[in-house]
Amino acid sequence: EKKEEDKEEEEKTEEERGKRKRKKSISQYFFSGNEIKKEEKEEDGPKKREKKEEMTEDEKETKIENEDVLLYGADDYCRVERWAPDIESVSFPTAFVPLTQEEIIAILKQKEHQQQLRTCFRIQKKQAILDKQKGEEEIKDIEFSESQKWKQIQEQYPLREEYVRILKELEKKVQNHLELFNYEQDGAFVKLSTRSPKDSALEGKKIRKLLFDLLKETKKTKKEEKIKEKKEEQKEVTEYENENSIDTTPADLSEVTEYGAFPGINEHSIVDGTEDREGETEEEWVQRTMTCFVRCCSLSLRVTSGKEALELLLNSNRIYEDLTRLQLFFNKQQGLKEESEEKEKEKE
């Protein structure tokens, strides 16, 4: 009986030891992306955890501050004003226009104002169609009067006069810097120290007009080239026929003359299962259209006045994002500065 009791006690102690080991093995590790070993003691464990959490928060704060300084610090080499002088001899002439705090706020407010007006315009247009339940012809009338409606909304909800005045002054400032170069003939490319407003190339009527004109011009040139090629090929065929004295009875040339003088040079031939677009294949048409589009995107970023430069900046989401982040960084630095000043006053 004693032996059995001893065995039961030993089994209980072994079970308790096993439970302790499992608890210990679980408490030794925790997971946050990677497996991190954790020394835990009942006396100083919680204190160590609090200390470690405080350190990680400080490290994160320092990391964010360093990233902000790298992005917006005056010594960051990624900023244009830092690397432009190093390539001055092999690049375009460059002038820098510093932006004031008031000008940055005015640009941001103008962009936000335009977004609000567009939302208002879309709601009013949708409501007009739903309420009146107009037919196709009347809906076209609504679309036709979109420009008038847009002007009406702009007049109804104007931007604050203070921001308008600041933007006008900025426009003049940019114009004065443009006049340092041969801007009327060559034009200029405008950008921030961080990024360019290339996303605004697709906004407005400028790129549409450029694309339409260039497509029309290249289409005319392509058509003239095709006609010239056809004439040369026709001439070669005629010379070949004369030299070899081919019998030109309709029976012999029924297949050849079905669509024109010679297969492959008629205006509406079938090439690889795709129809020509007035003398050019679908592949040629796509290639020409894409080439014109890329060219027009570059041309639409070319500005010849302060007004055009400002329009590009105001229509760009990239510029809005960079200036917003810069503004947040500035506000944060101002807050830290005020806090440090208050602490110094309290110490005194």
Beta-strand fraction estimate: under 5%
Gyration radius, in Å: 37 Å
Taken in chain order, the helices and strands follow as HEEHHHHHHHEHEEHEHH
- Overall average pLDDT: 70
| Secondary structure category | mainly alpha
Number of DSSP E strands: 6
Helix content: 55-70%
Counting DSSP H or I runs of 4 or more residues, the number of helices is 12
Quote the distance from N terminus to C terminus: 81 Å
Largest sheet: 2 strands, antiparallel
What does it look like?
The chain has 12 helices and 6 strands. The chain has 3 domains: 15-72; 80-197 and 301-329, no CATH class; 198-221 and 264-300, no CATH class. By secondary structure, the protein is mainly α. Helix 7 (161-178) crosses helix 11. The chain is extended and about 125 Å long. A hairpin with a 1-residue loop joins strand 1 and strand 2. The strands form 3 sheets. A two-stranded antiparallel ribbon has the order 1-2. A two-stranded antiparallel ribbon has the order 3-6. A two-stranded antiparallel ribbon has the order 4-5.
